[in-house]
Write a structure and sequence with these properties.
Elements lengths: L1 E4 L5 H8 L5 E4 L2 H9 L3 E4 L16 E4 L13 H4 L1 H12 L5 H7 L10 H10 L6 E6 L4 H13 L3 E8 L10 E8 L11 E2 L13 E2 L3 H5 L10 E3 L16 E3 L7 E6 L2 E6 L13 H6 L10 E6 L8 E3 L17 E6 L16 E2 L2 H7 L12 H10 L3 H12 L13
Parallel strand pairs: 1-2, 1-4, 2-3, 4-5, 8-9
Antiparallel strand pairs: 5-7, 6-7, 10-11, 12-13, 14-15, 14-16, 16-17
Helix pairs in contact: 1-12, 4-5, 4-7
Length: about 425
């Protein structure tokens, strides 16, 4: 079997499915387990830190591990860095067959920090049976020193090991998500997969390889296609200005309002060009609908381009729709990612003549696509629970690139349909 620790909603599992294999995932979160069940993935709902590792001895081909990143992520308090010496000690002890987790856990500033040492407990139990054949692990970049400690131990056990930082955008994921990766094998030289994409498209090299341009958010989401999905519009005025097209409190998409506007690609991003404007209903002065009617001035095609803003902080990452997204993270900032309108390239000053279109919250479906999950992936739970799963997931497209060489199977990137 392929054993997947901290399996989450199935980033690694979906990649394995496309490669013709399945894994057994260990995951404690109920909603992630429900998502996995809907996707047809095998799951043991359990605490990885408490499950007996010896049960799998003699049965494991490959081991995958993506420990929770909250203790180490730049989006949080990063107490994992404070606890790093304790985690290194836990890894060294577990590799030697000594379980000191209870004592070390009591000294941790964040109890989640020690979860990064759990893969070594399983690896030590499997090593006695000459397993696994290969290993793939992923975490936030600050965990790289820990992966290097794992690598030193694994090399002593006869593995070829590679560790480093990979950018998901270099492998066709519409997101510049950088991750610390560990790849190890007993039967082949461990090395990173060759990147397929670059920030700027490349000409054919001396080796005959050519990398395509990074996949943009607009490209992944199908914006600009007449049959593709478009951003969701919240009641209170459409993103391109104009009267509120739907009843107050409703939530529709621009697909449902094609008589009012259409999305089109633009060098500066994705813009909304109004085909025509209709007069709004008579409303009481000062009401919410009245404020929407005040935005009824026609919007020229060159006026506004859409960007994704990662949160409401002053230093938030903002990326145009014709670029990949920044790293998506949710949780305590659930659903703070919003589409915001900015003057498009070459547009004249619109500050006086037109109002800025209102921000639009990103949907879970859009966030999943930007993680390279299929548009119809069966996310379970409410909006916050879905965003939490998506933000913590491994991009399946990156996972497939990492796993295909170990499985000796071809990987066809066209299997990722994204917004199709």
């Amino acid at each position: 079997m392929v054993l997947d620790l901290f399996a989450g909603p199935g980033g690694w599992s979906h990649a394995l499915t496309l490669l013709g294999m399945r894994d057994v995932g260990l995951e404690w979160d109920t909603w992630a387990c429900n998502t996995r069940a809907r996707a047809g993935q095998l799951t043991i709902q359990t605490d990885v830190a408490r499950y007996p590792a010896w049960i799998f001895s003699g049965r494991v081909l490959g081991l995958i591990a993506s420990p929770p990143c909250q203790a180490w992520s730049r989006a949080g308090k990063r107490l994992g860095l404070v606890d790093q010496p304790l985690v290194h000690q836990a890894v060294a002890d577990l590799a030697a067959g000594r379980d000191t987790r209870e004592q070390l856990l009591a000294a941790c500033a964040d109890p989640r920090s020690l979860l990064a040492a759990e893969p070594m407990r399983y690896l030590h139990a499997l090593h006695t049976a000459g397993e696994p054949e290969w290993i793939a692990m992923e975490e936030v970049p600050d965990v790289l020193p820990l992966w290097k400690q794992y690598a030193a131990i694994l090399r002593g056990w006869g593995f070829s090991v590679w560790t480093g930082i990979l950018n998901s955008a270099d492998y066709g994921v519409p997101q510049t998500r950088k991750r610390a990766i560990l790849l190890a094998s007993r039967v082949r030289t461990a090395e990173p997969p060759p990147p397929t994409h670059a920030q700027v498209a490349e000409d054919t090299t001396l080796f005959g390889l050519r990398r395509a341009r990074w996949v943009s958010m607009a490209q992944a989401l199908g914006w600009g296609r007449t049959d593709g999905p478009v951003p969701t519009v919240c009641a209170g005025g459409g993103p391109g200005g104009g009267p509120e097209p739907f009843p107050s409190g409703s939530r529709k998409t621009l697909t449902d309002a094609r008589d009012r506007g259409s999305w089109a690609p633009h060098p500066g991003g994705v813009i909304l060009s109004s085909r025509h404007q209709r007069p709004g209903p008579a409303v009481r002065k000062g009401s919410r609908s009245d404020r929407a009617v005040d935005h009824a001035a026609p919007v020229e095609a060159s006026s506004w381009a859409w960007s994704l803003r990662s949160n409401n902080q002053a230093n938030a990452t903002v990326r145009r729709a014709d670029e990949p997204a920044g790293t998506l993270f949710f949780g305590h900032r659930a659903n703070e990612c919003t589409w915001v309108a900015e003057p498009s390239a070459g547009a004249e000053d619109t500050s006086q003549s037109q109002s800025v279109p209102e921000p639009i919250r990103i949907t879970a479906r859009e966030a999943g696509i930007l993680q390279s999950f299929p548009a119809d992936y069966p996310w379970a739970g409410n909006k916050g629970q879905q965003f939490s799963q998506i933000g913590n997931a491994v991009p399946p497209r990156l996972a497939a690139h990492l796993l295909a060489p170990h499985l000796n199977v071809p990987f066809n990137p066209d299997d990722f349909t994204l917004a199709a």
